[in-house]
Design goal:
- The strands form eight sheets. This protein has a five-stranded parallel sheet, covered by helices on one side. Strands 11-18-12-13-14 form a five-stranded parallel sheet.
- α3 (165-180) links the parallel β12 (149-155) and β13.
- By secondary structure, it is of the alpha/beta class.
- The chain has helices at 12-24, 133-145, 165-180, 201-213, 302-320, 373-390, 410-418, and strands at 3-8, 30-36, 40-42, 61-63, 72-76, 79-83, 88-91, 96-98, 101-104, 109-110, 127-128, 149-155, 186-191, 216-219, 224-228, 233-236, 241-243, 246-250, 253-254, 287-289, 333-340, 343-349, 358-360, 366-368.
- The termini are far apart.
- It folds into three domains: 3-108 and 255-320, 3-Layer(bba) Sandwich (FAD/NAD(P)-binding domain), CATH 3.50.50.60; 118-252, FAD/NAD(P)-binding domain (3-Layer(bba) Sandwich); 334-418, no CATH class.
- It has seven helices and 24 strands.
Length: 419
């Protein structure tokens, strides 16, 4: 009788895991079931472009079922809870699914209600977000009407999906406002709970320099307690205030709600404690975690889920064969950072090596940590790569799951970071 692999979540991580497992396991060896509440797979990197009219919302959504390889079943229900002891998943219609292996791939949830006033007076008028489809579309309308005043991008707390996206928004806003001829009438500010624009020294220096060059102010260590949409104020826990005419807020993130209803599965924030190397859950040996659902230090970004997919699939195959897990994840992440005016930067890093200059994926390749039109073209081309290579679970030649060091100026970066 075939084993049953149940994958909770049909987003980036869940789809990649399902398709890689389908490719790795002989036909008839396992039944693979993906569970998600709907059939709408959203290309999340595209949400950044919606407010600036660079992407149509309808173009970013495709059927979840059509992204899964033949032989992978999609069950359209929300998850109510997981019973680790019984090896079952309870669904919102009262039914249950048994599993031999469980993959948690339900990502990170946007917790708007956790910040006082965020969805109160001013919501969708002077207070917006671009981190979901509805918010990105509403923000497009607000930006079209905005030609003077103070625009603030505020990150409530970390971790968040795609940590560089708020900076990308500001870079694109600077470009977009200049194109409209109103940049000199708009003050741009980045408010962050961090002590700098980015967490890594060399990259922070580059991004902070870009912000300064573009005349974008940075307010650091701001932990937003209240969003007052009526009077236009962000109020931090230490009493500091940042006024705004238009606020673009990245809300608090947490794990999926069912995690809290599943004893032993998650931490207080709803993320799932995970072995950073094998991606096996610390809760139970037949549970694995991929993507934003994990409590790992690795960046919550789509590229991470892609690189993790190879590790998860390999280790599940070995688990089913009764063999020890041997694949190891190093925290590899990379990301294009739109900087406006048809240019972008590229960063590539892991748990041990921060973003550094050089080229990716080798000595001849895309420039790292430097603005270029080539990187902007790569950012735009990534959408097709996403739909036709990453989601189907294909390996990309020259781009391994572990971070390549060839082409990186590691020694120079180490000196720069220590200076």
């Amino acid at each position: 009788m075939p084993d049953r692999i149940v994958i909770l979540g049909g987003g980036t991580g869940g789809t990649i895991a399902a398709n890689r497992l389908r490719r790795s396991l002989p036909e008839g060896r396992a039944d693979i079931v993906v569970v998600d509440r709907d059939d709408a797979h959203v290309y999340q990197p595209g949400l950044l472009f919606v407010p600036f009219g660079m992407a149509a919302p309808s173009r970013l959504v495709r059927s979840r079922a059509r992204q899964l390889l033949r032989g992978v079943e999609l069950v359209r229900h929300a998850v109510d809870a997981v019973d680790l002891g019984a090896g079952t998943v309870a669904l919102d219609d009262g039914s249950t699914l048994g599993y031999d292996v469980l993959v948690v791939a339900t990502g990170a949830a946007l917790l708007f209600e956790e910040t006082e006033g965020l969805t109160g007076p001013g919501w969708r008028r002077t207070v917006h977000t671009f981190y979901d489809m509805e918010g990105a579309a509403a923000l497009a309308g607000a930006l079209a009407r905005f030609d003077a005043g103070h625009l603030v991008v505020d990150v409530v707390d970390m971790p968040i999906k795609c940590p560089v996206a708020p900076l990308e928004f500001l870079f694109l806003a600077d470009w977009w406002l200049q194109r409209r001829g109103v940049r000199d009438r708009v003050r741009l500010t980045f408010a962050t709970p961090l002590d700098g624009a980015f967490t890594k020294a060399v990259c922070n220096r580059e991004l902070s320099g870009l912000l300064a060059k573009k005349g974008i102010e940075v307010v650091t260590e701001l932990n937003t307690a209240t969003v007052d949409g009526e009077s236009g104020r962000l109020i931090s826990y230490d009493g500091r205030e940042v006024p705004f005419d238009l606020a673009v807020v990245v809300p608090l993130h947490g794990g999926a709600s069912y995690v809290a209803r599943s004893p032993g599965l998650g931490d207080p924030l709803g993320f799932v404690p995970t072995d950073p190397a094998t991606l096996q859950s610390r809760a139970h040996p037949n549970v694995f975690v991929i993507g934003d659902a994990a409590d790992l230090a690795a960046s919550k970004a789509g590229s991470v889920a892609h690189f993790e997919g190879e590790i998860v699939a390999h280790n599940i195959v070995r688990l089913l064969a009764g063999e020890p897990l041997d694949a190891r994840f190093d925290g590899h992440a990379n990301c294009f950072i739109e900087s406006g005016f048809g240019k972008a930067l590229l960063i590539d890093f892991n748990d041990e090596v921060e973003p550094v200059p050089g080229h990716f994926p080798g000595p001849v390749g895309l420039p790292l940590l430097r603005e270029s039109r080539l990187n902007h073209m790569g950012k735009l081309a990534f959408e097709q790569l996403y739909w036709h290579a990453l989601l189907p679970g294909r390996s990309i030649p020259g781009v391994p799951s572990h971070m390549p060091t060839a082409g990186k100026r590691l020694a120079a970066a180490a000196l720069a970071a220590g200076s």
